[in-house]
């Protein structure tokens, strides 16, 4: 599994895929990514030290992802990240967190000491589809509510049962309320959630212009950030 990469097109940054403790929610219907975790803190920290040692700081921006939220990284790993920020003169950090951690984001910002762009896996702003089908456990009612806490939503498109109207609304809300966002085109995995090829083709045709939009990153494959497998 590749765990380090440099993104040089939109929002240039280094990106690392670290290992964390098990996802605190871990019940999203579409997700089998959460298997990349451990309860052995020493093993986690040893691996993360090796990955973080590859960070050069040449772009001044670092994104840290793991199979869950940044709050599930061990405190020793968080200290490593803080040390690298200072040593490599990183001036901006990207983290991701679940909705349940929304009231803890400021503490993390204060701990790291630099601006943090917090991503959140929204998947869709359609509450019924998000909660009743995807089982996201993120019970917000509106994009405005998300924006009070988070900077950059991650949307998911191309799922059977999703509609064009849902996707239209999601993209509209992304562009209206957020400066940055990510759109993940769903890829079949080991779960029972399935990709809708016709919906994917429609999306890639109608929203092809997003590929050139500097504020939106479209991930057609889950490894498009150059990490994972």
TrEMBL record:
Stored SMART domains: Elp3
UniProt feature coiled coil, ranges: none
Species of provenance: Faecalimonas umbilicata
Name this protein carries in UniProt: Radical SAM protein
Lineage: Bacteria, Bacillati, Bacillota, Clostridia, Lachnospirales
Elp3/MiaA/NifB-like radical SAM core domain: residues covered: 13-213
GO molecular function list: catalytic activity; iron-sulfur cluster binding
Domain of life of the native organism: Bacteria
